[in-house]
Amino acid sequence: MPDRFNRTPKVAVVCHSHPSVSKGGAEVAAYALYSGLRDIGVDAIFVCACSEADRSRLAFSSDSEFAVYYDPSRYEHFIISRRPPSSANSPTSSRASACRS
What we know:
The chain is α/β, with parallel strands linked by helices. It has one helix at residues 25-39; strands at 10-15, 43-51, 65-70, 75-76, 81-82, 97-99. It has a four-stranded mixed beta sheet, with helices on one face. Strands 4-5 form a two-stranded antiparallel sheet. Helix 1 (25-39) links the parallel strand 1 and strand 2. It is elongated. The termini are far apart.
């Protein structure tokens, strides 16, 4: 059997928020999956979305947790889409940024 089938799987668990910011069912379930995979030796990372305003509330428990920061005013919840940029926005409001903490 080729060596590629004998490697440890690598998994990214992605969720719309982190349980340290929001204790919703999806956050708790995704984090439990991530933790369980790590417990059995799978090389897993947890990636969540977090608004810039909630950045200080994030509490990562390992170096394998990451966040993508966004400006919630740039998202249209009714049509589930990114709002078109306006010329008066600040430089950070027109893009999302990924960061460890």
